[in-house]
């Protein structure tokens, strides 16, 4: 048993299901550019930064754009995405997420958000859970994208705990790798086949308990 002192949570796909909004907005952009992409391809965008996601999508469509054009396209996509997340309500918190966050805090564990999204504060405020995090590190604070551990290491530092005392909750392969690269434990949210590098995989935070945390 490790001495766990903090839990660091990814946002998209762990606490809320915003992947569907990202998909809709990217699909609309691709369609405007004259091509389409599949939900399977969309899986590859999980945990991936906005700019890198755009580059992958343009590659799938065989489309080349200048840097200035890419900036405009990413902004266009984000405007549509922000319109959608502005409609979010607390009902969109994924099953078990609220209970587990509260259980962590009741058990004396520190909590952090570690997300690649630059929209994380908007989402947290819309679903009403910003107050459940001791620190929030997101796409506005980091320069190296997951699987680089920067986002999680900054979270640990802000909480005043060492990486080995942290457990990261992640639904993306790159996110699980980032946790492991940072010397942290990783709980995968999703399928064990996809998230094979995680120390434990559960289908959702509704399947997570403080007991399971202590066994890691
Ligand atoms: C998360 C999502 C990605 C998204 C990234 C950046 O990691 O899983 O799909 O591209 O955040 O989000 P943003 O809101 O800044 O465009
Ligand atoms: Mg995610």
Automatic annotation (TrEMBL):
| GO terms (BP aspect) | carbohydrate metabolic process
Which domain of life does the protein's organism represent?
Bacteria
Q: Which cofactor does it need?
A: Mg(2+)
Binding positions (substrate)? 10-12, 26, 45-50, 53, 77, 115-119, 146
User: Which residues of this UniProt protein bind Mg(2+)?
Assistant: 10, 12, 170-171
Q: What class of enzyme is it?
A: isomerase
Instruction: State whether keyword Isomerase applies.
Output: yes
The active site lies at 10 (proton donor/acceptor), 12 (proton donor/acceptor)
Please identify the protein, giving its name as recorded.
Beta-phosphoglucomutase
Source organism per entry reads: Mucilaginibacter polytrichastri
């Amino acid at each position: 048993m490790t001495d766990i002192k903090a839990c660091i949570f990814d946002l998209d796909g762990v606490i809320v299901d915003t992947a569907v909004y990202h998909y809709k907005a990217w699909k609309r952009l691709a369609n405007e550019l004259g091509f389409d992409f599949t939900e399977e391809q969309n899986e590859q965008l999980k945990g991936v930064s906005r700019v890198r996601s755009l580059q992958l999508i343009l590659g799938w469509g065989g489309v080349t754009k200048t840097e200035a054009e890419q900036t405009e396209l990413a902004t266009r996509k984000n405007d549509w995405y922000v319109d959608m997340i502005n409609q979010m309500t607390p009902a969109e918190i994924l099953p078990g997420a609220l209970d587990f966050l509260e259980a962590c805090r009741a058990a004396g564990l520190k909590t952090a958000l570690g997300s690649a999204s630059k929209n994380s504060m908007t989402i947290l405020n819309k679903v009403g859970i910003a107050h459940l995090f001791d620190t929030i590190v997101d796409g506005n604070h980091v320069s190296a994208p997951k699987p680089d551990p920067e986002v999680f290491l900054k979270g640990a530092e802000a909480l005043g705990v060492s990486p080995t005392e942290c457990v990261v909750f992640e639904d993306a392969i790159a996110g699980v790798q980032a946790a492991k690269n940072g010397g942290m434990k990783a709980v995968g949210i999703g399928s064990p086949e996809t998230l094979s590098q995680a120390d434990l995989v559960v289908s959702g935070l509704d399947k997570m308990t403080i007991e399971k945390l202590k066994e890691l």
